Amino acid sequence: MAGIAIGTTHMKLTNDCYVILIGTKNFTERYYRGKAGWLKVSARGRTFRMTAEQVLNHLLPAFAGIKPNVIIKVEHHDPPLQDKGSG
């Protein structure tokens, strides 16, 4: 299990804990890791399956400054606690 201890809490740092927001002042697209792989939610709300390479291809031009008006934000979300049950 990948993670880091901060104080007395444990943060999970796997891909499924992040939402990537890419946009401008007029639109925002969301990218996140679901159970079956990466998903993109367009500014109009349509959902598309993507490979990790496709997600990276959307991120790199913005990071390189080729698209200077693009805003990238990454949010961390801890997954809900799973009930382990007692058998």
Short description:
With 87 residues, the chain is mainly beta. The chain contains one helix and seven strands, in the order ββββββαβ.
Strand % is: 35-45%
What value does the average pLDDT take? 82
Structural class: mainly beta
The major pleated sheet works out as: 5 strands, antiparallel
Q: What separation lies between the terminal Cα atoms?
A: 22 Å
Shape: globular
Q: Can you give a write-up of this model?
A:
- The protein has one domain (11-76).
- Helix content is 15%, strand content 41%.
- It contains 1 helix and 7 strands; from the N terminus they run E-E-E-E-E-E-H-E.
- The chain has a 5-stranded antiparallel sheet with strand order 6-5-4-3-7, covered by helices on one side. A two-stranded antiparallel sheet has the order 1-2.
- Strand 1 (3-6) and strand 2 form a beta hairpin.
Keywords:
mainly beta, 7 strands, 87 residues
